[in-house]
Design a protein that fits this description.
Layout (H helix, E strand, L loop, with lengths): L1 H39 L12 H5 L3 H9 L21 H6 L4 H6 L12 E7 L6 H5 L10 E5 L3 E2 L6 E9 L5 E10 L2 E6 L7 E7 L23 E3 L5 E9 L6 E8 L2 H7 L6 E6 L6 H7 L5 E6 L5 H10 L7 E4 L4 E2 L4 H8 L5 E10 L10 E3 L7 E4 H6 L15 H11 L3 E12 L16
Organism: Phrynocephalus forsythii
EC number: 2.4.1.244
Function: Transfers N-acetylgalactosamine (GalNAc) from UDP-GalNAc to N-acetylglucosamine-beta-benzyl with a beta-1,4-linkage to form N,N'-diacetyllactosediamine, GalNAc-beta-1,4-GlcNAc structures in N-linked glycans and probably O-linked glycans.
Length: 453
């Protein structure tokens, strides 16, 4: 009798465990069903359809940040808004109010990050061809790039092959004025600028090629006429949307860079100097109408001289010197690609003494891809091509050497410096802040003839 009772107890325990397991499975299936129904109806935690889908997918903000940081993360739907928690106060204040971190998350509001001095960079990988049209044929372009990141300069050289780039953002001009944009790339590239902050107003201003076979060297902005834009008037009170498209194949040294040039009008507006005169000698340039641009500017005084033949630096400078009739005027010799600080005129006047001293300020040469806003370069300690001197002193030492330096580029500044010193004049040297020489290559700058260096 005792054995039968023991056997019956064992049977009941086994059956109880089985019923318990079946009951738990039934509860789990029912809970899963209810969750699916809630998700299908747009519910989920009382948020309804207003709850962000990302909040249902990730358990914490740190987990979400890690997921978004992966390069292979799929692009989110553009209609989604990204919510971040408000900046929490110190923990003791939160605890005093009896509120937890979860409560703070529920009360979060939309948050937008403004990144000044940076632009968006989207990379489209593993796509052959060197033309922008081939980039547009990519099924992932423009919404689904492989990589999303930012740039601090409008220049990059990833040293990759078979890829495309889309760089976009907003330009915030530091001052009102006319700007000329230029682009260089290997292979094809395009620079688009909107006349407002909207994408619908985009216009193509500058480009490198269309077939995928065209390319330039870094800093070479004069190889193709299409590389430079016409002067564009921008306002410091507005922002302008822009895009740069670049396509690289499997050959060559990949790079793309965008530069802009502001005319001397900005310096005149800043100084309001009535004795500030601009002299430009032009060797038959055809990329823009320099004389027309000067007429439309607000410059009070300027002179323009168009020269013919191949480029000769010494002869061009001497032609400009000859236009100055007052022997007691100060002449400042300079080239293009220079960014002047606001106090340059006053500095030249202070450091030039007629019959006694000339002034050779030291310029900072910007490296490829650098800009005055993000300066990266070196002081030009061995260059004396930027020189301020009285017209009478320049005439006394013989002016520029136009005989020995006709087709040879370089060295004319040292030769002029030697004659200045031999005449008993001192040369004041000073490193000027915000005095920049923009990067450019020498190849392709001079027309019709390769100059000897």
């Amino acid at each position: 009798m005792r054995c039968r009772l023991c056997h019956l107890g064992q049977v009941l325990r086994r059956r109880f465990r089985r019923w318990l397991i079946l009951g738990l499975l039934a509860v789990g299936l029912w809970a899963a069903y209810l969750e699916l129904v809630a998700l299908a109806d747009g519910g989920g935690g009382g948020g309804g359809r207003g709850e962000h889908p990302l909040n249902r997918r990730y358990g914490s903000w740190s987990e979400l940040a890690k997921a978004l940081g992966k390069q292979d993360s799929p692009m989110l739907d553009p209609s989604l808004q990204f919510y971040l928690p408000q900046k929490l106060e110190v923990q003791n204040q939160v605890h005093r109010r009896g509120r937890s971190n979860s409560t703070a998350l529920e009360n979060s509001s939309s948050w937008r990050l403004e990144i000044n001095g940076q632009v968006n960079l989207h990379v489209f990988e593993d796509w052959c061809g060197g033309s922008i049209e081939q980039l547009r044929n990519n099924i992932h372009f423009p919404l689904y790039p492989h990589t999303r990141t930012t740039l601090k300069k409008l220049a990059t050289s990833p040293t990759w092959t078979n890829y495309g780039l889309r760089i976009f953002g907003y330009l915030h001009p530091l001052s009102d004025g006319e700007f000329q944009f230029a682009i260089a790339a290997d292979d094809n590239a395009e620079f688009w600028l909107s006349r407002s902050e909207t994408i619908s107003d985009l216009q193509l201003l500058a480009s490198v090629g269309k077939t995928g076979k065209e390319w330039t060297a870094p800093g070479e902005f004069g190889k193709f006429k299409s590389q430079k834009s016409k002067p564009v008037r921008l306002s410091a009170t507005k922002k302008y949307y822009f895009e740069v498209l670049h396509k690289q194949d499997d050959k060559g040294t990949d790079h793309v860079e965008v530069a802009f040039i502001s005319d001397m009008e900005e310096l005149y507006k800043l100084t309001k100097d009535p004795y500030f005169n601009v002299i430009i000698t032009d060797y038959s340039s055809d990329d823009m109408d320099v004389e027309e641009a000067l007429k439309k500017s607000s410059l009070r005084s300027y002179q323009y001289l168009r020269l013919t033949g191949s480029f000769e630096r010494s002869a061009g400078l001497q032609a400009g010197i000859d236009l100055v009739k007052d022997s007691h005027s100060i002449i400042f010799l300079c080239d293009l690609h220079i960014r002047f600080p606001g106090g340059i005129i006053d500095s030249i006047r202070k450091h030039c003494v007629e019959g006694k001293m000339a002034f050779a300020p030291m310029v900072m040469r910007l490296n490829c891809g650098a800009s005055p806003q993000q300066p990266d370069g070196y002081w030009e300690v061995n260059g004396f091509g930027l020189l301020g001197i009285y017209k009478s002193d320049l005439v006394r030492i013989g002016g520029m050497n136009t005989k020995e330096f006709r087709e040879k580029w370089g060295g004319e500044d040292w030769e002029l410096l030697d004659r200045i010193m031999q005449a008993g004049l001192e040369v004041d040297r000073l490193s000027l802040r915000n005095f920049f020489h923009h990067f450019h290559s020498r190849r392709g700058m001079w027309n019709r003839r390769q100059l000897k260096i």
